[in-house]
Amino acid sequence: MKKYSRTTAYPKPVARGFLMLLALVFGSIFVTVLAALSSFSITQNHVQTNATGKSRALALAEAGLEYYRWFLAHNPGNLTNGTGQPGPYVLTQTDPEGGTIGTVSLNVSGNMSCGQVTSIDLTATGYPSDGSNTSRTVATRYAQPTVATYSYILNDSVWAGSDRIINGPYHSNGGIRMDGTANAPVTSSLSSWLCTDAFGCSTDQTKTGVFGAGPNSTLWSYPSPQVDFNGIAANFTALKTKAQASGIYLARYSSGSSSNASYWRGYHLIFNADGTVTVKKVSNTQSLTVQPINTADGTTDHTVISSESTFATYTIPSSCGLIFVEDNVWVEGVIPAKVTVVSANVTTTGVAPNIMLPDNITYSGSSNPGLTAIAENDVLVTGDSPSTMALSGIFIAQNGAFGRNYYGCPSSYEPRNTLTIHGTTVSNKRTGTKWMNGCSGGDAGYQLRTDAFDRNLATDPPPFTPTISTDYQFVDWHEQ
Length: 480
Description:
Blueprint: H1 16-74, E1 89-94, E2 100-113, E3 116-128, E4 136-143, E5 152-154, E6 158-160, E7 164-167, E8 170-172, E9 176-178, E10 181-182, E11 186-188, E12 192-195, E13 205-208, E14 210-211, E15 220-221, H2 236-246, E16 248-250, E17 266-271, E18 276-285, E19 288-289, E20 300-301, E21 305-315, E22 322-325, E23 328-335, E24 338-343, E25 355-357, E26 361-363, E27 370-375, E28 379-381, E29 388-397, E30 402-403, E31 416-427, E32 434-439, E33 442-452, H3 455-459, E34 473-479
Parallel strand pairs: 5-8, 5-31, 6-9, 7-10, 7-33, 8-11, 9-14, 11-15, 16-22, 17-23, 22-24, 23-25, 23-26, 24-27, 25-28, 27-29, 28-30, 29-31, 31-33
Antiparallel strand pairs: 1-2, 2-3, 3-4, 4-34, 12-13, 17-18, 18-21, 19-20, 32-33
């Protein structure tokens, strides 16, 4: 028998378990990586599917809005999709091959004032049929665009001084000297015009439609299409009839011709935040010698009230915020709702009333208020207006001018500090609220003037605010 010594080496067994352990470890890593990649791919696929679905949902919603715009073009004022029943209205959208790509749920509602539809609100929700289980909703307002989309609309040449800050589109059918800061488009309907000393040119000079020392000249454009002042003119006879039937009507209190003191009488409207308007009869005004905004106008000013008496307090009708005054009217106070004040005379030939602004006009914090003030002739800031003045609203001088006469300096009426207008100014003639070198080398009138158009009024103006186009447009668009 063979004997082994104690030092003889025995052969070691093969480590089969170690190889299996390695296989399990790397297999687990592979499976984990594969699962992660698969999960990532699935997540990305879900994200892509969701993004595609949302894009299709938005396209479907917009298609629904465009459909109803087409429907209204052929069926004006029809708010029921031709069914005579309230919505929502479900529309099926198909592709060119006839397959269904989704549905649209459409809601339609009209905004009423004085018995007329002023605008239409459309809400469309798109549901694509691609399995993405997504939807998107778009809401729009469909209406004729009004003058409220501008900060200023003028039918005459104008000089905007260096103190002016203008936020909102500024347009003139005449020439524009822009020395102020305009932060929105400035457009003139003229390619060139004659600048005289009335516009700061020492000698008569031919200038481009818009020129001046103001910044942001890249926003200036000329010639641009005219704004038709005949087209935007209010139908005073129709407004009087509507106010007598559904709003508030005040008959003429003044009398005689412009050479008589009684001609300058009228009504003083003081708006209250509780939804009422206090009306006073103006029986007498001060006769002040002035330099008028436009040289063709008379040199006697009757804007300052010297005596008045309380006449009545009215609750403004919620269904028709229209006040027609067949006389001169002074307007101030806190506007509680959507209100349109009209100063015009359709009874007596040769009588063209004015609107006077003696004090601040602001809005209450409820019911989305707004003011449109339309004068047959001038809209004038009074001589005794506050030194710091704020005016909210749309102010329209249909045949006259918007501004403040020059009262001579020194006087208790000159100069003034700051005038802020939040809304829109529409003037047939040249405007002016500041007079260069009117106070012993200083300027008279308001020294600093800021204008900004009101976005809320642009999309939801008071009743009978003049439109600048007969075509209905989407004046507001937002996703819910």
